Amino acid sequence: MSPTAVPVTTEPRDEAFPAFDRLDWDDLALQLDGNGFAMTPPVLSPDQCRQMIDVFDDDAAFRSTVDMARLSFGEGRYRYFADPLPPLVQQLRTRLYPPMARIANRWASVLGEDPWPDTHAELVEACAAAGQHKPTPLVLRYGPTGYNCLHQDVYGDLTFPLQVLFMLNTPDVDFTGGESVFVEQRPRQQSRPMVARPALGQAVIFPVRNRPKQGARGYHRVQMRHGVSAVHTGDRHVLGVIFHNAR
Ligand SMILES: [Fe+2]
């Protein structure tokens, strides 16, 4: 290897995500409570986004690939990373988990559920004890007409309640259409649709399955499903970080 060549697997230094230290977690928690999802400022650099798009074609990086049309999930492909995760993905998982766990623990306390561990390493241990060993972070690629049906990313009994997607392309430049769609199913009420249009490097934090909502008589759970509307032109790539592992 020449002295200037840098492999994509190079361990990123801690300062690889300078925007993370500036995230306002109180504001993100307020967005989650009010809208059901939260948008961060751009947190991945254009180079990091490019790196995650390029890895999509590296078969050795993945443990499994899903052709969504074959399973009637939609149209497009997604690939689950194999262990060991690329350093960038591993760092995202471990660095984002603690502030997410603080929100998840507030939710657990108002819903009367068991608390979540403080670190991602402890969550991975708890997943292993529940028979959930396979990593769940993934990259998704949608071409023209690609879409993703409304769903929830549950992979076993242990389901950490929040997940994150990172937009890897520039909307309206690299692709058109392809909005992130959320539907909140409220008990005994009609469902609420919401749309997010994250920019390059921006993250969207959203519930995996449900979240607490305050009503007149305390908190209740509202169900949330997410999907992607049809891409009209170009290719749309997203990195998905789910914190629990799969059975
Ligand atoms: Fe999903």
From TrEMBL:
Regions that span the bilayer: none
Annotated ranges, domain Fe2OG dioxygenase: 133-246
Keywords, alphabetical: Iron, Metal-binding, Oxidoreductase
Organism domain of life: Bacteria
Keyword Signal: no
Pfam families: Oxygenase-NA (PF09859)
Gene Ontology MF annotations: metal ion binding; oxidoreductase activity
Family matches, as InterPro entries: DUF2086, Oxoglu/Fe-dep_dioxygenase_dom
Sequence similarity: Belongs to the iron/ascorbate-dependent oxidoreductase family.
Name this protein carries in UniProt: Fe2OG dioxygenase domain-containing protein
Annotated organism of origin: Actinomycetospora succinea
Lineage: Bacteria, Bacillati, Actinomycetota, Actinomycetes, Pseudonocardiales
